[in-house]
Amino acid sequence: MKFILCAVTLAILAAYSKAELDPEIPKKWKTREDAGVAVRDKLFEKLFATYKPENYAENSTVKVGVSLLDVSFDADNDIMNTNVWIRMLWKDNRLTWDEAEFPVGVLRIPADKVWKPDITLYNGVKPNMECFETNVIVYPNGMVLWVPPCHLQTYCNLTLNHGAYEEQICTLKFGSWTFDGFTMGLELYNNKNNTLVDVEDYFNRKWEVTQNTAVREEKFYDCCVEPYFNILFTLRFQRKPEGGATCKKH
Q: In this protein, which residues make up the domain named Neurotransmitter-gated ion-channel ligand-binding (predicted)?
């Protein structure tokens, strides 16, 4: 049990470390040690004296990225099961501070204490994503980074025949459930994989990722003048020969 907890902790730390690649997070904050507990507590008290997480962060643009860890397919129900890290980065102007007054590089805060974007898996089997409530990381300029590990179930038109090298193409489609594009922007997360699905930590003995793409889509509906954004990740999988195993595909 201790080994499992240790492995999960290390995985989450790795996810946050890899996520801190966006240019809006200055390098000095990624490596800097925090000040003492008393200073952090005083800063926390100041930031959250009147803060209400139910009030959304105005003029926010949310950046969304995905790291794929594992995949399996339910052919009977046309469902793709994935274990992923979802990276979300946004700015909350209510969570800024002067480093001269509070020499704190980052704050690690329970996710339920801050406003979070209502990013939803549009083609998910369930209305809510199954995610572990990790802490968010808040930086002095108000940037908030959240990287929850999630188990996702998405509908996919599967054609499994259990033949060697057969292929499946499935998608993950994310967007805000309630905010239009004028109220909350949506962009692809800027990671070292050029905004594609990150497969560096992917491991699966049966399926290899042979291609993946990511695009931001903008849609208009007859009812409204506002645009609605979504991020569409497309993954192409190829079945490996029996007994094959590949950790990652570049």
A: 41-241
Degrees (nearest 5) of the Cα angle 108, 46, 42? 70
Q: pTM of this prediction?
A: 0.83
C-alpha 2/C-alpha 8 separation (Å) is 10
pLDDT at residue 155 greater than cutoff 90: yes
Label residue 248 by pLDDT band (50, 70, 90): very low
> Under DSSP, is residue 142 helix (H, G, I), strand (E, B) or coil?
coil
Residue 199: Cβ within 10 Å count: 21
pLDDT higher than threshold 50 for residue 247? no
**Phi/psi at 153 (nearest 5 deg)?**
-120, 120
Domains in the chain: boundaries: 2-239
User: Is a pLDDT exceeding 50 seen at residue 240?
Assistant: yes
**pLDDT tens digits for 203-225?**
999 999 999 999 999 999 888 89
Q: What is the largest CA-CA distance in the chain?
A: 64
Would strands 119-121 and 130-131 be described as parallel, antiparallel, or unpaired? unpaired
The structure tokens listed for 4 are 């499992």
In the CATH hierarchy, which top-level class contains the domain 2-239? mainly beta
